[in-house]
Amino acid sequence: MEDIIVLKFGGSSVSNNENLKIVANKIIDFKANTKNVVVILSAQGKTTDKLIHEAYELTDEVNKRELDALVSCGEQMSAAKLSILLNSLDFPSVSLTGWQAGIYTNNTNQDALIENINTERIYTELKNNKIVIITGFQGINENLDITTFGRGGSDTTAVAVAAALKAKNCYIFSDVDGIYSADPKKVKNTKKLTKISYDEMLELSNEGAKVLHNRCIEIGEKYKIPIITKSTFNDNYGTVISSDEKIEKNEIKSVIKKDISRISIIGNGIARDIETVINILNFIKENKLEILEFNVSESKISITFKTFITDKMLEKLHDTIFYNN
What is the DSSP letter of 307? Predict the structure, then answer.
């Protein structure tokens, strides 16, 4: 089956009924241009946190199997609500749990790995011209027990389903409209990236950027599924994550502070960009910063400092790298 797209909406995108209506309209717009639409949903807002909290109010020793059974309810609720809404708007849709969608995993609870996706049910519903809405973050193991994928696991569901269906694109919608050169909540003059490579995005995720689940990036790269990050709440252009990057191109993409004393600069070919390395070293010297480690790899410079690094210092380094000031 050709011309399939996968759309994933995060918890903030479906946090209440008004936001669900915005999501429904986004899906309808895509449906007008693409025959086959598959949607992956997270739980609404802080539902997962609430369910976990309630479980630990009962006992300090929560059974892992039962915890997966409990927290998987959040995605089922949001998927069913969205399907109810779309059907009421005369757009036939069906909600599927992870196991109804044929997502099979290993036996690990809270951090399960997807082993196989049986796409038969999904294809059947698409052939019936339905919008297929799948619960993110969950599957089923060989014992027919519910398993979950850990924080950010709905991203992994989306890209894995896109790979299994050989989808044209996988869109990840949230309350942020793309990938930036730094955290826009901490740095004023950030640049939004139009594109970034899988390797660079994986470095960002591993360094703590809360944009995409690192496992979904690995799947996207393996199966060559372009991942497009966009905002649910506007129509601005997003960021395309793919392998469509010049191998020899040197370009800094992002600066990220992982914790109070570590900063990483991400970009293809950064090890060959001697001028940038010198500028960073000069910045450290001029600001009298003491370092414990300075590591350079093909796509990342990682610096661990002896002292606390403020967001103001992060912003100053960002502007030095991107604006030479």
Answer: S
What is the CATH classification number for the domain harbouring 272? 3.30.70.260
Residue of 306 and 207 predicted with greater confidence? 306
Tokens 């109804």 correspond to 100
Residue 271 CA to residue 300 CA, distance in Å, equals 8
Q: Cα separations (Å) of 25 from 63, 86, 89, 227, 236?
A: 39, 9, 10, 21, 16
pTM for this one?
0.85
| 3-state secondary structure (DSSP) of residue 170 | strand
The count of domains in the chain is: 2
Question: Any idea which residue has 């992994």 for tokens?
Answer: 156
Euclidean distance between CA atoms 47 and 41, whole angstroms: 13
Instruction: Report, as an integer, the average pLDDT of 196-202.
Output: 90
On whether both 143 and 258 belong to a single domain, the answer is no
User: Tell me, what CATH number does 127's domain have?
Assistant: 3.40.1160.10
Cα–Cα separations (whole angstroms), residue 263 to 60, 176, 190, 199, 290: 36, 22, 16, 18, 13
Segment 124-147, tens digit of pLDDT = 999 999 999 999 999 999 999 999
DSSP character string of 200-233: HHHHHHHTT-TTS-HHHHHHHHHHT--EEEEESS
Say if 230 falls within a structural domain.
Answer: no
